[in-house]
Design a protein that fits this description.
Layout: E1 2-3, H1 9-14, H2 17-22, H3 28-46, H4 52-59, H5 63-91, H6 93-112, H7 117-145, H8 148-179, H9 188-191, H10 193-207, H11 221-244, H12 248-273, H13 282-285, H14 288-318, H15 323-329, H16 331-351, H17 353-377, H18 387-408, H19 417-446, H20 451-472, H21 481-484, E2 489-490
Antiparallel strand pairs: 1-2
Helix pairs in contact: 3-7, 3-8, 3-10, 5-6, 5-7, 5-11, 5-19, 6-7, 6-10, 7-8, 7-19, 8-15, 8-16, 8-18, 11-12, 11-19, 14-18, 14-19, 14-20, 16-17, 16-18, 17-18, 17-20, 19-20
Length: 491
C-alpha cells in the first residue's frame, strides 16, 4: 500500500520543479505544463470551424471531405481515449504523455503542409489518435500525485482548460486565417502547435513525475475493438449523413452501432465477472459520481459542441463576418470563461452544488438574451450587441465545467485514475461530436430558409439541457472542504 506524496502550499512554492518530480511530486508549474499539453489537442477540435472556407478554397475539397477534417479527428480521438488511459496506467503516464505529444506535434506538422485534402484528413486522424494517448495522462497524473485541495483545484482547472481551449480555438483560428502569414492561409492553425508542443515536451520531460498504476492491468483487446467500432459506427453516419443525403449505409451503421454497443456491454460485464479488469468496468461506471456526473458531462458537451459550431456559421454566413471578426466575436465568451475559471474552484469549495446551479442559471440567461437579440434584430445585428450575452454564457459555463469535471472523478480509486479519466474525456468528446452531428444537422436543414431561426431552434435545445443541469446538480456529491482535503491513498 503506497501513500501519495503530500505536498503542501509552502513546499510546492519553495521546492524546485525538477526536485519535486524526482521525489514523485508535482510542482504548480508542472500542473501548468500538463494543462498546456492538454490545451493543444482540445483546441484543435474547434480551431478548424472558422478555417473550413479557406481550406475549401485552397484544396478544392468537397463538403463531405471538409466534414471529415473535423470528424476524422473527433472519431479517432473519442475511440482511443480509454485505451490511452489504460496504456498510461500500465506503461507509465509520463512516458505515454511524452510519446503522444511527440506524435501530435508531428501530425500537426503533416496537417500544416498537407498538399491535398486526403492527406489532411489522414493527418487529422493521426492527430486525433495521438491526442487520445496524451490527454488521459493529465487527469490521471493529477489523480495519482496530488491530494486534497491541490487535487481538487487541478481537476477543476483541467475542466476550465477544456472549455477555454474550445473557445480560444475559434478565436485563434480566425486570427491566424485572417493574418494569412506569408500567404499560407489556413496552414498556421496547425503549424502553431509545433513550437508550442516542442517547448512543452522539453519542459515536461524534466519536471513531470513518472507514475503508473501499482496494479497495471491488461489491454482488453476485445473490449477495445468493440468500443472503438461502436463509436465509429455511431459518429461517422451522424457526422457525414446530412452532407451525403443520408445514403443507405449511414442507416445501416446506426443500426450496427446499437448492436455493437450491446455486445460491448455484455463482453465487458463477462470480463469483469471473470476477475479481469475490462476497458470500461461496469462497476466503475456504477459509482454515483461517475454515473451521474458522466451523464451530465455528456449532455453539457452536446450543447456546447453544437453552440460553437452553429455560432461560427451564423456569424460568417448570416452576418457576413470574415474569419477574423468571426473569431473575435467569441472573445467576450472566452474572457469571461477564463475569469470564471480562476474563481470557480474556490466558489465550488465554498458554496458547493449551489455554485453549479448558479452557473447554469447565468448561462441560461446569456443564451436567452442572445436569441432575443439575434431574432429580434436580424439581420441588422452588430457583434457589439451580442457581447454581453456571450459574456454571461462564458461565465456560467466556466462554473459548470469546473464542477462537473471535479465531480466525476470524486469516487474513482487512484489505481483506476487513468481509466476513469479516459472514460470522462471520451464522453465529453463524444458529446461534442454528437452535438455537431445532431443539432448541427438541425441547423443546416433550416439555415437556407432563415439563419436566425435555425440558430434559435438549436439554442432552444441547449437551453433545455442547461435548465435540466441546473436542477440535476442536486444529485452530485457534496463539494465540502472536508471532502476536498481528504488524503489520497493508493490501494
Amino acid at each position: 500500500m503506497t501513500t501519495t506524496l503530500s505536498t503542501g502550499h509552502a513546499g510546492a512554492a519553495t521546492a524546485s520543479p525538477r526536485a519535486m518530480a524526482r521525489a514523485g511530486g508535482l510542482h504548480p508549474f508542472g500542473v501548468f505544463i500538463l494543462l498546456a499539453g492538454a490545451f493543444l489537442p482540445i483546441m484543435d477540435f474547434f480551431i478548424t470551424n472558422v478555417a473550413l472556407p479557406s481550406i475549401d478554397a485552397s484544396l478544392h475539397a468537397s463538403a463531405s471531405s471538409l466534414e471529415l477534417v473535423i470528424a476524422g479527428y473527433g472519431v479517432a480521438y473519442a475511440t482511443l481515449l480509454v485505451l490511452g488511459g489504460r496504456l498510461g496506467d500500465r506503461y507509465g503516464r509520463h512516458r505515454i504523455f511524452l510519446g503522444g505529444l511527440v506524435g501530435f506535434v508531428l501530425a500537426s506538422l503533416a496537417c500544416g503542409i498537407a498538399p491535398t485534402v486526403g492527406a489532411l484528413i489522414t493527418a487529422r486522424i493521426i492527430q486525433g489518435a495521438t491526442a487520445a494517448l496524451l490527454i488521459p495522462q493529465v487527469l490521471a497524473t493529477f489523480h495519482h500525485v496530488l491530494e486534497g485541495e491541490r487535487k481538487s483545484r487541478a481537476v477543476a482547472l483541467y475542466g476550465a482548460t477544456s472549455g477555454i481551449a474550445a473557445v480560444v480555438g475559434q478565436l485563434v483560428g480566425g486570427l491566424l486565417v485572417s493574418a494569412d502569414i506569408a500567404g499560407t492561409s489556413w496552414r498556421p492553425i496547425f503549424l502553431v502547435n509545433v513550437p508550442i508542443g516542442v517547448v512543452v515536451i522539453l519542459v515536461a520531460a524534466r519536471i513531470v513525475p513518472s507514475t503508473r498504476s501499482p496494479h497495471p492491468v491488461g489491454i482488453d483487446l476485445p473490449g477495445t475493438v468493440l468500443f472503438a467500432a461502436t463509436l465509429t459506427a455511431l459518429l461517422v453516419p451522424l457526422t457525414e449523413g446530412h452532407s451525403l443525403g443520408w445514403p443507405w449505409w449511414t442507416w445501416l451503421l446506426l443500426a450496427l452501432a446499437a448492436v455493437l454497443g450491446s455486445a460491448t456491454y455484455l463482453v465487458e460485464k463477462r470480463t469483469e465477472r471473470r476477475g479481469d479488469v475490462p476497458l470500461l468496468p461496469p462497476s466503475l461506471l456504477r459509482l454515483p459520481s461517475m454515473s451521474r456526473g458522466l451523464a451530465m458531462v455528456f449532455a453539457f458537451s452536446i450543447g456546447f459542441g453544437a453552440f460553437m459550431f452553429v455560432f461560427a456559421l451564423t456569424v460568417q454566413n448570416g452576418l457576413h463576418a470574415d474569419a477574423l471578426h468571426s473569431g473575435l466575436a467569441i472573445l467576450p465568451m472566452a474572457l469571461l470563461f477564463f475569469a470564471g475559471s480562476l474563481v470557480a474552484p474556490r466558489m465550488i469549495t465554498r458554496y458547493g452544488r449551489a455554485a453549479l446551479s448558479t452557473g447554469a442559471i447565468i448561462q441560461l440567461a446569456g443564451l436567452v438574451s442572445l436569441v432575443v437579440i439575434l431574432v429580434g434584430n436580424w439581420p441588422h445585428v452588430s457583434l457589439w450587441a451580442i457581447a454581453v450575452p456571450l459574456a454571461l454564457v462564458g461565465a456560467g459555463q466556466s462554473m459548470l465545467f469546473a464542477g462537473l469535471f471535479r465531480s466525476v472523478l470524486a469516487d474513482v480509486p487512484a489505481h483506476l485514475g487513468g481509466i476513469g479519466s479516459g472514460v470522462l474525456i471520451t464522453l465529453q468528446q463524444s458529446g461534442l461530436a454528437l452535438g455537431v452531428a445532431t443539432l448541427g444537422t438541425l441547423y443546416l436543414t433550416q439555415a437556407p430558409h432563415n439563419i436566425a431561426h435555425a440558430f434559435a431552434d438549436v439554442e432552444y435545445v441547449q437551453m433545455a439541457i442547461v435548465a435540466l443541469l441546473a436542477v440535476s446538480v442536486a444529485a452530485l456529491p457534496r463539494f465540502t472542504k472536508a471532502a476536498a482535503t481528504a488524503p489520497v491513498i493508493d490501494a
